[in-house]
TrEMBL record, chain A:
Superkingdom of source: Eukaryota
Entry's family note: Belongs to the DAD/OST2 family.
Pathway: Protein modification; protein glycosylation
The entry's keywords: Endoplasmic reticulum, Membrane, Transmembrane, Transmembrane helix
Gene source species: Maudiozyma humilis (Sour dough yeast)
Any GO BP: protein N-linked glycosylation
Parts of the chain that traverse the membrane: 44-66, 72-96, 108-127
Protein name: Dolichyl-diphosphooligosaccharide--protein glycosyltransferase subunit OST2
Function: Subunit of the oligosaccharyl transferase (OST) complex that catalyzes the initial transfer of a defined glycan (Glc(3)Man(9)GlcNAc(2) in eukaryotes) from the lipid carrier dolichol-pyrophosphate to an asparagine residue within an Asn-X-Ser/Thr consensus motif in nascent polypeptide chains, the first step in protein N-glycosylation. N-glycosylation occurs cotranslationally and the complex associates with the Sec61 complex at the channel-forming translocon complex that mediates protein translocation across the endoplasmic reticulum (ER). All subunits are required for a maximal enzyme activity.
Complex formation: Component of the oligosaccharyltransferase (OST) complex.
UniProtKB/TrEMBL annotation, chain B:
Any Gene Ontology biological process: protein N-linked glycosylation via asparagine
Family, as annotated: Belongs to the DDOST 48 kDa subunit family.
Lineage: Eukaryota, Fungi, Dikarya, Ascomycota, Saccharomycotina
Pathway stated in the Swiss-Prot or TrEMBL entry: Protein modification; protein glycosylation
Protein name listed in UniProt: Dolichyl-diphosphooligosaccharide--protein glycosyltransferase subunit WBP1
Domain OST48 N-terminal: 32-263
Known role: Subunit of the oligosaccharyl transferase (OST) complex that catalyzes the initial transfer of a defined glycan (Glc(3)Man(9)GlcNAc(2) in eukaryotes) from the lipid carrier dolichol-pyrophosphate to an asparagine residue within an Asn-X-Ser/Thr consensus motif in nascent polypeptide chains, the first step in protein N-glycosylation. N-glycosylation occurs cotranslationally and the complex associates with the Sec61 complex at the channel-forming translocon complex that mediates protein translocation across the endoplasmic reticulum (ER).
PANTHER family assigned to the protein according to its UniProt record, in alphabetical order: DOLICHYL-DIPHOSPHOOLIGOSACCHARIDE--PROTEIN GLYCOSYLTRANSFERASE 48 KDA SUBUNIT
GO cellular component, one term: oligosaccharyltransferase complex
Membrane topology (UniProt): Single-pass type I membrane protein
Record carries keyword Signal: yes
């Protein structure tokens, strides 16, 4: 008798997990929508992130298409600028939603701009 | 002061005189020859035609030493200077000979560049000559064993006109070896050049009717062989004295003459007269402009061959001269084209690789020609050069590579999006306090 009960329990558990999962996803989606609804700056950051991911994917698919990574430094520069910009945007986003102590949101934005400019400068040099 | 000038003038005159006198020697190395024989084995008169041809046709100054006389001395060297260029050793017996012409002496003579003709016969055991030949890798049959061919129906061993195994040494001439031939086994080292092989139906038998094992059977035996050491000194071994005697000389004159010409360095002697390599496009040499990776380079070599009959150097034409570019492993092995006589030196043939691209790898490279063919002098020319890598401003820039345009466009679009982002971010109407933080407070 003993092994039957856990079976039933496990079946119920599976359904529960599925339920929990969909619930969690819908909850997080909802909270995300709520988060960006009244905040165009966050929306702007997220759009930019999507653009970056699309560009990086394009570059990778180009390498796969020509089956040659010959100007490898150029590929690295193009890919790293996407990754670096993405990371910097995430840092900015964190600071906007959850400001660090002693650093104002405007200061965080300024630091983001300076770091980005350095990143662009480096990548432009690295590609040549 | 005046005396000094006079001496100089005299010296110059002597040099001029020696150059004016036409060179009679046909050998590329020298004309001093020594013939060692033993009257107890064979009267020297039996070889008068051979000796005459050595003097007349080969232009040699032949000294003879008869070794049955115990007072006779054989001096191949005076201290360390070689006294003869060529040595002919007929079968000689006795301890006196072994002392005078020890195998070590013969080897030293060969190693020093002297050419040796060694003749063995079944009747005589010339121990030191056998030892010397064994050192070269030629193993003649022991005394009393001679070659017979029961199928041929005659006692006389002969070689047909197409029997030659190496056309550089001799070709298209028949040879008669007589009825007393000592066959030899040959080592398989590349310096040995087999000349005449024993027929399939022949074998060695002992004259003593003992149960001695046969030294050679069938085609494993050889009757004549040549040897060229790594310094291009040559040796010839013949298994029969009768081939050289007056009785057979008229028949053998052509083939023997060719063999002796080869041995005395009168033909098939090669030398490199010039090696050069340069940039293929500009013609600048390495010294003017060192090579870098992927440069186009052309390599030339000029090879001359000694023509003993005309006593001068002539172009050597072949289709198998190869060039090798090595850095531990060969990166290139190119068969060079013969381009005709070298314009700078008409006595040599110019070989060229044509333009080839240096590999995309920097370091020390060897430009080598290693021409080692059986029957002609070995040539080995090496030139080691450093090939540099590209300097940092010699790589193509990104805009010169079409593939890089994609990545450059990606960077440009990222930067453009960044500028747009900053613009919209700054001009965004909503304050940062809206949204998330409000929700938190409500919760």
């Amino acid at each position: 008798m003993a092994p039957v009960i856990p079976k039933k329990k496990s079946a119920a558990g599976k359904e529960d997990i599925q339920k929990d999962f969909t619930e969690a996803i819908s909850l997080s989606l909802e909270s995300y929508k709520k988060q960006v609804r009244n905040n165009p700056k966050l929306r702007l950051i997220d759009i930019f992130c999507c653009i970056l991911v699309a560009i990086a994917l394009l570059e990778c698919s180009f390498v796969a298409l020509v089956q040659d990574n010959y100007p490898f430094n150029a590929f690295l520069a193009g890919f790293i600028i996407c990754v670096g910009q993405f990371v910097l945007l995430m840092c900015l986003r964190l600071q906007l939603t959850n400001p660090f102590q002693g650093i104002s949101k405007n200061k965080a934005f300024g630091e983001f701009v300076i770091a980005s400019l350095i990143l662009h400068f480096t990548c432009l040099h690295f590609i040549n | 002061m005046l005396g000094n000038h006079f001496l100089h003038a005299l010296l110059a005159l002597c040099v001029a005189l020696t150059q004016l006198v036409p060179c009679l020697a046909r050998s590329a190395t020298g004309d001093r020859a020594l013939l060692v024989f033993d009257d107890r084995v064979d009267e020297i008169a039996q070889y008068s035609q051979l000796i005459e041809s050595l003097r007349e046709q080969h232009g040699l100054a032949v000294d003879t030493v008869e070794l049955s006389d115990k007072a006779a001395r054989v001096d191949l060297f005076n201290r360390d200077i070689r006294l003869y260029d060529h040595l002919l050793v007929f079968p000689v017996k006795g301890k006196h000979f072994a002392k005078q012409l020890a195998a070590k002496k013969l080897l030293r003579f060969t190693e020093d560049g002297g050419n040796v003709v060694a003749v063995t016969a079944p009747r005589v055991a010339s121990d030191s000559v056998h030892q010397y030949l064994n050192q070269l890798g030629i193993y003649p049959a022991p005394r009393t064993q001679h070659l017979v061919d029961l199928v041929s129906g005659t006692d006389v061993i002969a070689a047909a006109s197409n029997a030659s195994l190496n056309a550089h040494v001799y070709s298209d001439a028949a040879l008669v070896f007589g009825d007393s031939v000592s066959p030899a086994l040959l080592d398989n080292r590349p310096q040995i050049i087999p000349l005449v092989q024993a027929s399939k139906s022949s074998f060695a038998v002992s004259a003593n009717k003992t149960r001695e094992q046969s030294w050679t059977q069938g085609a494993q035996g050889y009757i004549a062989a040549a040897f060229q050491n790594n310094q291009n000194a040559r040796a010839l071994w013949l298994g029969s004295t009768q081939a050289l005697s007056n009785a057979n000389f008229a028949q053998n004159a052509q083939a023997l003459g060719e063999m002796l010409k080869w041995t005395f360095q009168e033909k098939a002697v090669l030398k490199v007269t010039g090696v050069s390599h340069a940039h293929a496009d500009s013609g600048l040499s390495y010294d003017q402009l060192p090579y870098k990776v992927t440069d186009d380079v052309v390599y030339n070599i000029s090879i001359a061959q000694w023509d003993g009959d005309a006593a001068q150097w002539a172009p050597y034409v072949a289709d198998d001269v190869q060039f090798e570019l090595r850095q531990i492993d060969p990166y290139y092995r190119i068969t060079m084209h013969a381009l005709g006589a070298d314009p700078r030196d008409a006595t040599a043939e110019l070989y060229s690789t044509g333009a080839f691209k240096m590999p995309n790898r920097h370091g020390m490279f060897t430009f080598a020609t290693d021409y080692q063919r059986q029957g002609v002098s070995y040539l080995s020319e090496q030139d080691i050069k450093a090939i540099r890598h590209l300097a940092n401003d010699e790589y193509p820039r990104s805009w010169e590579i079409t593939n890089a345009w994609v990545y450059a466009a990606a960077i440009a679009s990222v930067i453009a999006s960044f500028v747009g982002f900053v613009f919209f971010f700054v001009t965004a109407p909503a304050s940062l306090s809206d949204g998330f933080t409000d929700d938190k407070k409500k919760n």
